[in-house]
Structures are given as C-alpha cells and as structure tokens.
Amino acid sequence: VSELKAATTTSSTCKGGNMVAGGTLAIRRLNMSYGHLEVLKGVDLVIPQGSVTCIIGPSGSGKSTLLRCLNRLVEPKGGDILLDGKSILTMKPEALRRRVGMVFQHFNLFPDHTALDNVMLSLRKIKGMPRGEARRIGEARLADVGLLGRKDHRPSGLSGGQQQRVAIARALAMDPEVILFDEVTSALDPELVKGVLDLIADLGRQGMTMAVVTHEMGFARRVADQVVFMDEGRIVEVGSPADIFDAPKSDRLRRFLAEVL
Ligand code: ADP
Ligand code: MG
C-alpha cells in the first residue's frame, strides 16, 4: 500500500516534483566560431537554478549557437560552461543531455512514431528503461501537457501546438535539471502560440531551470527572472524585465526594442 501511495504521490506531483533538483549553469568567456566566422565572442552568463532566463536579440546574434553550446550540439572554441560547478565540456554528451534537455523550433518529433512512443524513445534508448516504466512516465508527462488523450496519434495527426507540447513532454520525461527552448513558438500559427507559452510559464512557476530564446517580448516581460539581450555574438545587456524593457541602457537595445515592440 505504501509503495502504491508513493507511486501515486510521485505521479500526481511530478509536474513539480521532478524538477526540484540542481542545475545552475555558469558560462565563462565562451567563444564559438563556424570556420572563420566568430559567432560567440566571450559570453559570460549565469543561469541560476530554478530561474527563467529569456534570451532576446536580432537574428544572427548567436542565440541558438549559445543554446547549442549548453547542450554540446556544437563544441565551443574557448571558455567553459559549468553545471553545478562542474565543466560540461568534459562530460559525455549523452550524460549531459540527460541533465540538460532541449526543445527546438521545428519540434523534431519522429514522424512514424506515436506521441507516446516519441516521449518513450529516449527513456528506452538513452536511459535503458524497461518498457512498462517508460510507458508510465511517458503517459504521465503527456498528461502534464494535456495530451494524454492523443497519445496514439502520430505527429501528422496533431496541430503544431500539440506537436510542440509532445516535444516538451519528451524533454520533461528525461527528468532534466535544465531545459533549453529555442524559439519554440516561431513555427506555430498565432492561435497556437499561447498554449505553448502558458505551458512554459507553468514550468517556470514550478521551479524548472530554463533558458528560453524567444521573440515573444510579452512572454519575456511576464515570465523571465532575467532577460539577456545579445547582439553580434556578445551579451549587450542583462537585467530584470523592467531593466531591459523599461530602462534599456544601450542604443542597440533601444533600437532593437523600437523594431520589435
Ligand atoms: P540566432 O539564433 O541569434 O539567429 P545563430 O546562433 O543561429 O543566431 O547564428 C549566429 C551566426 O552564425 C549567424 O551569422 C549564422 O549565419 C551563423 N551560423 C549559424 N549556424 C551556422 C552553421 N552551422 N554554419 C555556419 N554558420 C552558422
Ligand atoms: Mg536562432
């Protein structure tokens, strides 16, 4: 009975309960280039555990590259990234990606698999979890994003917003300490954007550590604990939403806000 109770408690609170762990990222003098093109030029930033960091800036400023370094999808040329004080650059990428999840603009779901299989796959393959347990967790995470009723649908049978929520459920299923979101609403029809942003805001309220690259300035103002403005491979300003949106210090940020707001 107590085991059953524990299991029930876990699954009913796991939306918040599975995301209380560590996960402070400290980025130190990070450099990255593609060939001769310098894309990150000495980025310093701390993403504190349990906080939401929104990253804004013009196209080409290096936002995606920064996130990709945090997940080792690309390797920086210099500097370091610490996760709870330990360099991620010496970890195995697979080990790192269990701790730092990522959600992409174009969902990247497997088209031939159902929603539930998409969520279960990395649990099976990366964590080597038995099918029954992976199914239980997969169903719980789909329920968290409001899509348990669609678990047997393939991506093509889901709206863009639903596909993105499946992708978020997939990231959550790995029980990561940090989740990176790269313009996850940019490919969605306008009426589907709010549902996905509300879900991310909800995760933030539950204490998930997140870095969110977004063009949604209203979201950044409402949800971010800190906002980072990047331009040309550098962080130009960091501050609270009020600092960034109401009292920008640099001309570059003022010009950017004048264009997007
Ligand atoms: P953002 O996400 O802010 O739009 P990116 O990080 O995608 O910026 O890109 C930063 C710069 O790096 C841009 O000049 C872009 O053209 C270049 N870039 C991005 N990815 C690659 C790549 N795989 N190969 C070469 N250049 C790239
Ligand atoms: Mg980008």
TrEMBL record:
The keyword Ribonucleoprotein does not apply. GO terms for cellular component: ATP-binding cassette (ABC) transporter complex. The keyword Iron does not apply. It comes from the Bacteria. Keywords: ATP-binding, Cell membrane, Membrane, Nucleotide-binding, Plasmid, Transmembrane, Transmembrane helix, Transport. Residues 25-257 form the ABC transporter domain. It is a multi-pass membrane protein; Peripheral membrane protein. It is found in: Cell inner membrane; Cell membrane. One of its GO terms (molecular function) is ATP binding. Belongs to the binding-protein-dependent transport system permease family. HisMQ subfamily. Belongs to the ABC transporter superfamily. This is Glutamine ABC transporter. The chain holds residues 248 to 508 of 508 of the full protein.
